[in-house]
């Protein structure tokens, strides 16, 4: 088998300890191969050499029959003994050049990587593929480093690009299973490079029906999840408003206590129906309501609430219902920055909305914040580029609020590379910054618009932001001078209710 022609798409890493009682190890591997495994790595840490060789021979017989490679983890001697197709080594194992010297020019060599310098070294060593991980937490083995999610995948693919090694094959490993493999497939990529395969362990080895489990994984790899169906329909503002009027979308809020009342009133004013709930038993039911959306606002963040947020994300992603994520104060502390990374790794968001500092935190950049407020300001061109980057990385719509709001969208069009576009929206009034909740409640207005127009999230978001800015300008003009913020609130809700009618 040529070193260049192997298929990493469904990469089975064996673990004999996980095989269900009553099923023979070799039989479990055979069933997985019947289901469509494209490459097998035999990983045995507890067998003596003679036993390892015997097991490797048994598995190699199966892989040769199926025409797929057998890779031996770490043990070059075992690979040589059975003349299999290759070896996979970790960072603490034999260096790649020495492995190549021992096994010859025709065998496959893979190497585990978790840091940029390790990827660059693998490229210099001319490994045939790299394993990227750990992506998520796993029970297969004790991890030495914190799982880095899809953001880490993109970072390491970027290291390949910097090394002029985009030809090198890649697979991801660490907690990959049926619940996240589609998200990893779509979000774990950069321009010009996506992962070639998915290394899985427990979801096949621990399954009572390894063949069916493998078939299910292959089906997920080859199809789009419900939240990633093409959504690039161009709708006019009038069409978007008409859809809201016809559907009266339900918006489920998981938001901070300070803004609940105002967010509910904004939702009603723009034509939606608000509900507030942090009861996870309701999440699946709410997510299944037609023309609905979730606003996830993490302003009052605690460890206990993280479990609630993740449960909601999973429920809404399961049925493809839009989520508007507002990472309030995301850059204000390390705790909040870590929470942002954890939530981004937990699911897909249709829209991510925040000020410059908050979106900088999502982008992995350092931007000083004071509480939930921005400190300092970048040029509008820099903000546009940041918004486009976050939109591309997360394949979603991004709103960066400020004196001028930037809306960037990178949504699925049915093509391999999603469409990327942006719009700068002027307007509003300085008094909007003097009222608690005007920033957070923009998420409610966006959620109503996107819930009614899920096939066009970018244009629905643009329309919502435009109407919000217009209402702020009208209300601010009425309230400025002899009147004040109380008049502004009333006038703002009135103006929102008449926009688009």
From TrEMBL:
Physiological role: Condenses 4-methyl-5-(beta-hydroxyethyl)thiazole monophosphate (THZ-P) and 2-methyl-4-amino-5-hydroxymethyl pyrimidine pyrophosphate (HMP-PP) to form thiamine monophosphate (TMP).
Assigned keywords, A-Z: ATP-binding, Kinase, Magnesium, Metal-binding, Nucleotide-binding, Thiamine biosynthesis, Transferase
Biological source species: Kuraishia capsulata CBS 1993
Name used for this protein in its record: Thiamine phosphate synthase/TenI domain-containing protein
UniProt cross-references to SUPFAM superfamilies, sorted A to Z: Ribokinase-like, Thiamin phosphate synthase
Necessary cofactors: Mg(2+)
Pathway the protein takes part in: Cofactor biosynthesis; thiamine diphosphate biosynthesis; thiamine phosphate from 4-amino-2-methyl-5-diphosphomethylpyrimidine and 4-methyl-5-(2-phosphoethyl)-thiazole: step 1/1; Cofactor biosynthesis; thiamine diphosphate biosynthesis; 4-methyl-5-(2-phosphoethyl)-thiazole from 5-(2-hydroxyethyl)-4-methylthiazole: step 1/1
Listed GO MF terms: ATP binding; hydroxyethylthiazole kinase activity; magnesium ion binding; thiamine-phosphate diphosphorylase activity
Gene Ontology CC: cytosol
